[in-house]
């Protein structure tokens, strides 16, 4: 009689445990990445009142089964549906991650590693990626110091993704450029004094932007043009020579190409007001508005389109080196820089308009040559490229521009240009970097965001267009994930039955899994299942309680036999 009561008691206890499991599941129905649990029952034990017997051939009797009375029920196992993927919830937070697959995030409290499916992460005050709930560090692999574009897969460590040293991206000077497009020989800009202007934007080593202004001019030879550097402007549109007395752009930069003869080019220069034309000596005003004299010899009176002109076939340069240097400076003050006066063949002076034209110049520029038959590019100087060659300093101390020391020589490729008919319009233009964008240079970049790829690699983005690899989130995988022990706070720890963690982790993509950003894995609790289990558990508990009350009634009847 007493056995049934104790069986009922065991039934009450086990059903209470099952209700506890159900209650915990329902309580965590909205817990991030919670895995629901289930309980299985087993018979407790049996009291054998008679052993089983076999058939007896001698007596002719058959065998009998054992007589056993059960003594109740017990909880056999509590299982976790740890491999069952929960639904996803969109959060929009770039640090919220959801794992698809059987892997686990690795987190650490500073002493021990734990494992979780809850990817609700954030960045702490010193830039570490941490669990939002408890501040545990998210673990992963660091960038290889010998190759910053690769990950060094070693023992996992805390991922610091927003340290002060990575908040900016260092600038880089421009080293390569491309000039491409059509150069139409009928473009009227090529015959103008200013020529066809081509601007080229570039950066110095400190990330400051500049614009090199080139001009392309016609020559007297078919298919040949002349390109020179006219100025370099800073980000405010000011020339780098501004405020430096007597300086010229040729003091700071020149165009260098493979050696070749310059084409026959002419340059017209308007003299200052007040110039007079007298036999042998010309007077002009320099940059300080002071009258200077220029001695020219061997005059020949000619007529050009009805306009009187004076042609000088030689420049009278003094033999004394000091006087010669002074004379060249005077000539440069009139005609501008970039002229090698030792090679000048002819100067034409129009005494009506005050314009001087210098022919056969060897100036700081390069010649361009195209095939007159098909318009294909042939060469610039003697090859496909020329160099924007910067001079760190100039001779006079008052002309030194300190920022010029940050400039890097730039090689520009012109083989993508053509001399085609384009209705008199040239489309020739310059851009920094080669065709693949290499060598374009950049300004200093400010961090604009963090992105986490599906393989767990973390990249920082900057406003100069650059990205930087910050590390990779590693994951852990176990032979028997259900053997992990729950530690609370959505954490698990390795056990003897789950398999040990090797300290290194694995790449999530190795087993076909991946990470998604901006979403979280939800609980995999199914309320319909839980409520159904709750009903059966309630009825089971109720039935076991009835066993106890009925057994009590029977005992009461037994006691009443004494009356």
Largest sheet properties: 9 strands, antiparallel
Tally of helical segments:
3
Strand element count: 38
Shape: rod-shaped
Instruction: Please state the CA-atom Rg, rounded to the nearest Å.
Output: 45 Å
CA-CA gap between termini: 20 Å
- Proportion of residues in helical segments: 10-25%
Strand residue percentage? 35-45%
Structural class: mainly beta
Protein described:
- The chain is mainly beta.
- Helices cover about 15% and strands about 40% of the residues.
- The protein is built from 3 helices and 38 strands.
- A hairpin with a 2-residue loop joins strand 22 and strand 23.
- Helix 1 packs antiparallel against helix 3 (about 525-560).
- The longest helix has about 35 residues, at about 525-560.
Give structural attributes.
4 domains; 40% strand; mainly beta; 3 helices; 563 residues
SSE blueprint:
Elements: H1 2-27, E1 37-43, E2 46-50, E3 67-70, E4 73-80, E5 88-90, E6 96-100, E7 104-108, E8 113-116, E9 119-123, E10 129-131, E11 137-144, E12 147-158, E13 168-169, E14 176-182, E15 196-203, E16 209-218, E17 224-233, E18 253-257, E19 266-270, E20 276-278, E21 281-285, E22 291-304, E23 307-315, H2 321-335, E24 346-350, E25 355-359, E26 365-370, E27 377-380, E28 385-390, E29 410-418, E30 429-432, E31 445-452, E32 457-462, E33 467-473, E34 475-476, E35 485-488, E36 491-493, E37 514-517, E38 519-521, H3 527-560
Helix pairs in contact: 1-3
């Amino acid at each position: 009689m007493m056995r049934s009561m104790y069986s009922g008691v065991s039934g009450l206890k086990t059903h209470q445990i099952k209700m506890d499991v159900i209650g915990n599941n329902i309580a965590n129905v909205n817990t991030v990445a919670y895995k629901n649990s289930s309980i299985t029952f087993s018979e407790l034990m049996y009291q054998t009142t008679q052993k089983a017997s076999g058939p007896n051939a001698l007596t002719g009797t058959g065998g009998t089964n054992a007589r056993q009375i059960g003594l109740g029920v017990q909880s056999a196992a509590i299982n976790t549906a740890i491999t069952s993927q929960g639904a996803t919830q969109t959060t929009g937070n770039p640090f919220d991650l959801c794992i698809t697959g059987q892997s686990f995030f690795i987190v650490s409290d500073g002493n021990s590693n734990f494992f979780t499916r809850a990817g609700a992460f954030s960045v702490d005050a010193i830039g570490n990626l941490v669990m939002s709930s408890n501040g545990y560090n998210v673990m992963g692999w660091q960038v290889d110091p010998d190759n910053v574009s690769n990950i060094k897969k070693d023992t996992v460590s805390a991922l610091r993704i927003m340290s002060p040293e990575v908040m900016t991206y260092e600038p880089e000077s421009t080293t390569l450029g491309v000039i491409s497009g059509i150069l139409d020989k009928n473009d009227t800009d090529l015959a103008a004094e200013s020529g066809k202007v081509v601007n080229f934007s570039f950066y110095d080593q400190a990330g400051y932007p500049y614009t090199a202004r080139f001009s392309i001019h016609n020559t007297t030879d078919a298919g040949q043009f002349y390109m020179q550097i006219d100025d370099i402007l800073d980000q405010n549109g000011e020339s780098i020579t501004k405020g430096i007395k007597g300086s010229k752009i040729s003091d700071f930069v020149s165009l260098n190409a493979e050696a070749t003869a310059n084409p026959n080019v002419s340059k017209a220069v308007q003299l200052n007001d007040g110039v007079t034309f007298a036999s042998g000596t010309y007077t002009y005003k320099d940059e300080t508005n002071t009258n200077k004299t220029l001695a020219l010899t061997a005059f020949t009176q000619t007529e050009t389109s009805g306009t009187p002109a004076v042609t000088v076939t030689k420049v009278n340069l003094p033999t004394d080196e000091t006087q010669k240097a002074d004379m060249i400076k005077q000539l440069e003050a009139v005609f501008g820089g970039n002229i090698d006066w030792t090679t000048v063949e002819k100067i034409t002076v129009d005494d009506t308009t005050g314009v001087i034209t210098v022919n056969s110049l060897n100036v700081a520029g390069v010649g361009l040559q195209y095939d007159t038959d098909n318009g294909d590019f042939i060469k610039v100087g003697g090859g496909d490229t020329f160099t924007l060659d910067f001079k760190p300093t100039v001779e006079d101390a008052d002309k030194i521009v300190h920022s010029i020391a940050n400039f890097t020589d730039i090689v520009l490729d012109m083989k993508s240009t053509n001399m085609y008919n384009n209705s008199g319009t040239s489309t020739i233009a310059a851009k920094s970097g080669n065709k693949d964008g290499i060598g374009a240079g950049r300004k200093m970049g400010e961090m604009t965001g963090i992105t986490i790829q599906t393989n767990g690699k973390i990249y920082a983005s900057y406003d100069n267009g650059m990205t930087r690899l910050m590390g990779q989130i590693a994951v852990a995988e176990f032979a028997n994930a259900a053997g992990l022990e729950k530690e609370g706070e959505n954490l698990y720890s390795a056990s003897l039955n789950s398999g040990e963690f090797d300290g290194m982790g694995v790449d999530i993509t190795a087993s076909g899994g991946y990470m998604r950003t901006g979403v979280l894995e939800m609980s995999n609790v199914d309320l319909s299942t839980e409520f159904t289990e709750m009903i059966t558990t309630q009825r089971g508990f109720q039935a076991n309680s009835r066993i106890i009350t009925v057994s009590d009634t029977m005992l009461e009847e037994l006691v009443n036999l004494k009356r």
